[in-house]
């Protein structure tokens, strides 16, 4: 190993602590200088490569289910929303497809219908889908139940992010407990106006879900 660069001797009694630290820093060997330069070059190269990789467009995942993307497009139209959470959508799609062997083909049929015509609203799209194939009504029910209630294949996929809470999320958060006093359910609830709109789908059989 080569010798360190020469440094003028100093009297430790006549220098300040800052000067002592500076003197130690100046006693840097040529080897340290070389290693420091090499480290900086490697760091710059890695950073440049990472920046280039970040700017490059990401390739689609190998083996991705194309119907999953169709499910998201159909869901955006049925919920009248420009964007939906992709992670929640993938979980809902997996549960819906698992619940019925024919759901995947029905989702593709809904996407084909959506691609052929321009629908002004979810109501118009749902009505046209049931008219084209009455079996598509059940697929629409599963999709809307998944997004608004957070349930797919009889299992809770998401709770707080379910769309049924979206209207009041700026004021009231969904809770897991009742906010009323004892026996609050025995009082007469307030009257509400009867809805004036018409359902997009035909009536379905009432199903009592297990609790």
TrEMBL record:
InterPro entries: FAD-SLDH_ssu, TAT_signal. It comes from the Bacteria. This is Sorbitol dehydrogenase.
